[in-house]
Amino acid sequence: MADIIAETDRLILRTIKESDAAEQMRVLNTPTVMARLGGVKELHEIEAKHAKAQALYSRHGFSFLMMIEKATGDLVGHCGIKQVDNPLAPNQGDHEVGWLVREDRWRRGYAREAMEAVLEWAFCRVHAPHVVALTSEANVGSWKLMEKLGMTRRTDLDFDDPEYPPEDQRVIQYSLTREEWEKNQ
């Protein structure tokens, strides 16, 4: 059974269940949605990420979550907190926040709504001193949302990841401290 971590006006953010991998594969794992995230994944890759998220939640009380639309019960995305685990990142272990929204729900404010709840979770319940978010320079929508959330560009944390296509190899980071977040509440 999944734990509900947060509710917003339109969303329920809950922990991952084993049965979520097939639904994520169907509605989130599309070429358009995954274009800036390394491309479409195989089912076993999604299952491995889910298992990793479930283990992280069991150990540390945070992980990525499923975004469920209250009005329909549909999976509309995922979001949450993990630890920076890219071996090329200079800040491994930092609390990393992130999100992904299915294409037919883009431009409705779901990512921002979910991330505001995730930031509250990160700072008030997980007690993270700061969070970071990673994207590529080409993912304009992603870093613009980071800025709307009050995050600051951190060029000192940028790195190159050859696992991504050339246009996405430069990984950029934004950060937000608990104090900065509290000032905007």
From TrEMBL:
Signal peptide: none annotated. PROSITE patterns: GNAT. Residues 11-179 form the N-acetyltransferase domain. InterPro entries: Acyl_CoA_acyltransferase, GNAT_dom, N-acetyltransferase. The keyword Metal-binding does not apply. SUPFAM superfamilies: Acyl-CoA N-acyltransferases (Nat) (SSF55729). It comes from the Bacteria. PANTHER family: GNAT FAMILY, PUTATIVE (AFU_ORTHOLOGUE AFUA_3G00765)-RELATED-RELATED (PTHR43792), N-ACETYLTRANSFERASE DOMAIN-CONTAINING PROTEIN (PTHR43792:SF1). This is Protein N-acetyltransferase, RimJ/RimL family. It comes from Qipengyuania nanhaisediminis.
